[in-house]
């Protein structure tokens, strides 16, 4: 998942991934991972979620977003994205989302 280059280039993501992976392995009960952060080019509150192959888990992802939308006036369900495309898209520098904690975890 993450190699020595990632440890050097993105030490915070590397450390968080290592800690979360260890917790999930040891306790075997990690249900959800949420990465809260801002986007300079987007406004409002939304969720980028992974496209999960397990239909029930994918339904849980989308249901969580809908529950948030029902309870938060600033949440925009139309801006949410749970597609494989958003997981694989490359940014303007050619970097993929594979190195993001959301996709990696």
Keywords:
single chain, 5 helices, 47% helix
Characterize the overall form. globular
* Topology as a string of helices (H) and strands (E): HHHHH
**Helix amount, in percent?**
40-55%
Count helical runs.
5
**Sheet with the most strands, sense and barrel status:** none
Mean pLDDT: 81
Number of strands: 0
What quaternary form is this?
Answer: single chain
Count of structural domains = 1
Backbone structural class: mainly alpha
Give the amount of beta strand, in percent: under 5%
Q: Could you tell me how far the N terminus lies from the C terminus, measured between alpha carbons in angstroms?
A: 9 Å
Poorly predicted residue ranges: none
Please give the radius of gyration in angstroms: 15 Å
Structure write-up:
It contains five helices and no strands. It is an all-alpha fold and 105 residues long. The chain has one domain.
Task: Describe this structure in a few short sentences.
This protein has helices spanning 4-9, 11-27, 55-71, 84-88, 101-104. It is an all-alpha fold.
Topology:
Blueprint: H1 4-9, H2 11-27, H3 55-71, H4 84-88, H5 101-104
């Amino acid at each position: 998942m993450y190699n020595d280059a990632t440890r050097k280039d993105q030490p915070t993501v590397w450390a968080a991934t290592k800690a979360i992976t260890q917790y999930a392995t040891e306790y075997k009960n990690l249900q959800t991972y949420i990465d809260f952060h801002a986007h300079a080019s987007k406004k409002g509150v939304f969720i980028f979620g992974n496209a999960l192959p397990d239909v029930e888990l994918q339904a849980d992802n989308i249901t969580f977003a809908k529950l948030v939308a029902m309870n938060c006036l600033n949440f925009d369900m139309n801006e949410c994205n749970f597609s494989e495309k958003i997981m694989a898209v490359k940014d303007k520098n050619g970097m993929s989302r594979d190195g993001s904690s959301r996709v990696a975890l």
